[in-house]
Design goal:
The chain is mostly helical. It is 69% helix and 0% strand. Helix 3 packs antiparallel against helix 9, helix 6 packs antiparallel against helix 18 and helix 8 packs parallel to helix 12.
């Protein structure tokens, strides 16, 4: 293993790292900001797209969150999906522009630290680590593991220890995959693109065809697609806002493609295309799946009463072997999320550590010379993720709070990076031939700031989210304690962090 060269305080590049006259190679960009090219550049466009598409995972998101939308606004909740999709596409445009200007591992941290200052970047980067630390374990413990156990005829509810053991194995495997090489992880994600399409679109279209062909009786016609309910007499607008969380919970994470920029062959082109393509594809394909499953609902009350409404719908129309196949696609999609999440989390930790922003930074920034992967960061944060998941197993109510926090944290990050970009965009250059919003930049930035604030309000004001709000607050208190105890002094001595954007043109 070897650590990055030089001290943690780095000379930085031009405004936004890249200017119109910057040398074209990725190695030249890294050299300009004082970094050595340590990660293997092997990911081409499709692999970058697969990262963004499989981390969104419409299969996983719809499978886990469909019931939430159904309970809050009825079958018509599916129409909140394109609304959220349009909003998140605007966020993707911001990410795409930043990906062309600052194509470095560590995405949100690097963007925020260079556009504002390292202190701001630290808190944004910490939010990213917090999000990835909780999210993967939640999906394994509450989703993939119970599904896998039930496939062998074992009741997950009465075999909780077995569910935990399986979840632990499922958590370890993605770390091993990422340690072996980024290419192996990329192959998993490439396959996940097709399982996502089959697991949602193909099954959704199949259910629609069976419904249209009257293969079995149903009490509803196409009007079910516009049927609304409001639990407990809540105002419809309030119910609509909660139902929109179906999309808000799901259509996130696409920015992690940018986190893999130093593993990409041509990140300044592949990141914008992969991020925008993944969001557009997920919105369209997810909508097709939602229509197919919703129109095939055999009984709204019966489906709402199950913990897995999609399985209840599929089980009514399809033979058991086909339902089992559907479950297999769901499990693999969940596994692929963790493969992406583990790799992206390690890149973010590596990026923070090479700037001396973390405890034990000299240890965490080490990269294996043979595999060219941040093995130490993968192992350390893999253990941390496992610890959080095991804690969640023994503290179920508290873990539910942690899971809820993973919904709002991405929007906090989106707001903070957009705010940083709004402050400094005028000082950054557009690069000929690369993605650029041009005159639409300020309308998009303004919309994203308002939109992310609205989503954060929806995800924090209702009483059901108050526990998550406290967890996020405690998390940032922890980040503040580390900053006050050590990081502040490192930054003052110049042994940590990066230079702000106005110093980059010197």
């Amino acid at each position: 293993m070897t650590s990055t060269a030089g001290e943690a305080a780095r000379p930085a590049g031009s405004a936004g790292v890249i200017s119109a006259d910057t040398a074209g190679t990725e190695e030249a960009i890294l050299a300009r900001v004082g970094y050595k090219p340590e990660l293997r550049r092997s990911l081409r466009f499709f692999s970058m797209f697969a990262i963004a598409f499989s981390i969104i995972s419409i299969t996983t998101g719809i499978f886990l969150n469909y019931g939430f939308g159904l309970a809050n606004w009825g079958p018509a909740s599916i129409w909140t999906w394109p609304v959220v999709g349009a909003g998140n596409l605007m966020i993707a445009f911001i990410v795409a522009e930043l990906g062309t200007r600052i194509p470095l591992a560590g995405y949100a941290y690097q963007w925020s630290a260079r556009l504002v200052n390292p202190t701001y970047g630290w808190f944004v980067g910490f939010a990213g680590l917090l999000y990835m630390t909780v999210g993967g374990g939640a999906i394994m413990l509450l989703g993939a593991s119970p599904l896998l156990v039930s496939e062998f005829g074992i009741d997950p509810a009465s075999n909780a220890h077995l569910v935990l053991a399986v979840a632990i194995m499922l958590m370890i495997l993605p770390v091993i995959v990422n340690i072996i090489s980024v290419q192996v992880a990329a192959r998993v994600n490439n396959v996940a693109v097709f399982t996502e399409i089959i697991g949602t679109v193909v099954f959704g279209v199949l259910l629609f065809a069976l419904w249209a062909g009257h293969a079995k009786p149903t009490p509803y016609g196409a009007s079910i697609l516009t049927s609304t309910t409001s639990p407990g007499g809540s105002p419809l607008l309030y119910s609509f806002a909660l139902a929109s969380m179906l999309g808000a919970f799901t259509l996130v994470g696409f920015e992690l493609s940018a986190d893999m920029s130093e593993d990409a062959v041509d990140p300044r082109r592949s990141v914008p295309r992969s991020v925008i393509g993944a969001v557009v594809g997920s919105v369209i394909l997810g909508m097709i799946a939602l229509i197919g499953f919703t129109i095939a609902i055999p009984s709204i009350k019966a489906v709402e009463g199950t913990g897995t409404p999609l399985l209840a719908i599929a089980g009514y129309w399809l033979p058991s072997w086909l339902v089992t196949t559907f479950i297999a696609f769901v499990i693999f999609s969940m596994f692929a999320i963790l493969v992406v999440g583990s790799g992206a989390q390690a890149r973010l930790a590596y990026s923070l550590a090479r700037d001396n922003m973390l405890p034990l930074s000299g240890f965490l920034r080490r990269v294996n010379q043979r595999t060219q992967t941040p093995v130490v960061a993968l192992l350390v944060f893999g253990v941390i993720d496992l610890g959080v998941m095991i804690y969640g197993y023994f503290q179920t109510s508290a873990y539910g709070t942690l899971v809820g926090a993973t919904a709002i944290i991405p929007y906090i990050i989106y707001f903070l990076i957009t705010l940083a970009y709004a402050v400094k965009r005028r000082t950054t250059d557009s690069i000929p031939g690369l993605f650029n919003l041009g005159r639409w930049a300020w309308p998009v930035i303004g919309f994203v700031l308002v939109y992310t604030v609205a989503v954060m309000i929806i995800l924090s004001v209702p009483a059901i989210f108050h526990g998550s709000d406290k967890f996020i607050l405690y998390g940032f208190v922890l980040a503040l304690l580390w900053y006050a105890a050590a990081l502040y002094w490192r930054l003052r001595r110049g042994t940590a962090g990066v230079k702000p954007v106005e110093e980059l043109a010197d």
